[in-house]
Amino acid sequence: MEVESATQCFSEANLLSRNSFISVFKGTVRDGSLVAIRSINISSCKNEEVVDFLNGVKLLSLMSRKNVGSIFKILQNVHT
Length: 80
Description:
Phosphorylase Kinase, domain 1, 3 helices, Kinase-like_dom_sf, disordered C terminus, alpha+beta, globular
């Protein structure tokens, strides 16, 4: 998956920030663009926190960023 490749399998060296259930990693995608990738640890959060996370991704996708929309589709596929 490109997300794992971009972050070098979510390497600690690429970790930008972390709280109790969300981590943000820097990465580089195939075309050389730098990206920030938010990852949620579903096993350590409540259902409403997962909903909040997905709502945040939806909000970003409304900002007319084609890659954010693509990431949201990946998240839906992984978590449904």
